[in-house]
């Protein structure tokens, strides 16, 4: 069960790195939570700002069956989306790994894999949610915290418990039918196939139409040409 073992750390570089270095010491389902991360990471080594008051945690998976690592990103996205709806916070998934409230990012997910040959031996799903923490000045136009949205502080342990229960449920429910999870995830995305979007491409804003959404890439039509993109800076309005 996810969260049967939870390790609470006051301060660490990154909970993902902690599990990458120590995965052999802990069973599948172990969760590591840090009060503060000094080297919190996003994708492509981008910085994830992680001061006190936020919920910064990683889940260790050691899958016995063949599974795509993106299954866990989608499962976490859908579980968090549902958990937040349950506490009255309307939100959407932004492809591929974020949770947005209106036009601001509340949560990011970073799934990392250690392969044994072709087989994913260890999958680490790191989740960062702004809860009671301050949003730094430089992110204030694009990030938001749960306490800013609801106007009250939130109990981090209670929230963690709710999220772990939901993630556990979603992982179990869809482990034998991952394509059904993909459908649910797509339904809850901010952007859908067919949508006209404005996005950043090589430093320039362009308009395009989403042709196809996959786990790892998105196909966009721009000026009659289709482009396969592995990350997408959509202008969220
Ligand atoms: C993510 O990356 O959104 C994945 C973030 C995962 C963080 C968790 S916390 C627990 C675990 N341990 C880790 O070290 N990481 C995981 P990406 O899509 O690349 O977005 C990164 C971008 O989000 C940055 O370049 C900033 O623009 C923005 N950002 C940084 N900190 C933020 C924050 N606290 N809230 C909202 N946006 C933030």
From TrEMBL:
GO cellular component: cytoplasm
Lineage top rank: taxon: Bacteria
Tagged with keyword Cytoplasm: no
Keywords, ordered alphabetically: Ligase
CDD domains: BPL
Example GO molecular function: biotin--[biotin carboxyl-carrier protein] ligase activity
SUPFAM superfamilies: Class II aaRS and biotin synthetases
Pfam families, sorted: BPL_LplA_LipB
Stored InterPro entries: aa-tRNA-synth_II/BPL/LPL, Biotin_CoA_COase_ligase, BPL_LPL_catalytic
Ranges where the BPL/LPL catalytic domain occurs: 1-175
Gene3D superfamilies xref list: Bira Bifunctional Protein, Domain 2 (3.30.930.10)
PANTHER family, alphabetized: BIOTIN PROTEIN LIGASE (PTHR12835), BIOTIN--PROTEIN LIGASE (PTHR12835:SF5)
Protein name: Biotin/acetyl-CoA-carboxylase ligase
Organism listed in the record: Pseudothermotoga thermarum DSM 5069
């Amino acid at each position: 069960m996810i969260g049967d073992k939870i390790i609470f750390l006051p301060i660490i570089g990154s909970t993902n790195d902690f599990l990458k270095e120590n995965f052999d010491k802990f069973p599948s389902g172990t969760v590591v939570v840090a009060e503060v991360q000094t080297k919190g990471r996003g994708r492509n080594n981008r910085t994830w700002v992680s001061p006190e008051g936020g919920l910064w945690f990683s889940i260790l998976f050691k899958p016995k069956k063949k599974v795509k690592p993106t299954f866990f990103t989608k499962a976490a996205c859908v579980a968090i989306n549902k958990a937040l709806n349950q506490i009255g916070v309307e939100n959407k998934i932004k492809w591929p790994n974020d949770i947005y409230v209106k036009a601001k990012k509340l949560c990011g997910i970073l799934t990392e894999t250690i392969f044994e040959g072709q087989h994913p031996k260890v999958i680490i799903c790191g989740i960062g949610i702004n809860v009671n923490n301050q949003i730094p000045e430089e992110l204030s136009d694009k990030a938001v915290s749960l306490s800013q949205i609801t106007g009250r502080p939130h109990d981090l342990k209670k929230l963690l418990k709710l999220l772990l229960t939901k993630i556990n449920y979603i992982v179990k429910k869809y482990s034998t039918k991952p394509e059904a999870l993909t459908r649910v995830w797509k339904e809850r995305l901010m952007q859908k196939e067919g949508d006209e979007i404005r996005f950043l491409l090589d430093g320039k804003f362009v308009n395009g139409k989403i042709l196809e959404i996959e786990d790892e890439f998105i196909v966009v039509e721009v000026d009659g040409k289709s482009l396969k993109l592995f990350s997408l800076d959509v202008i969220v309005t």
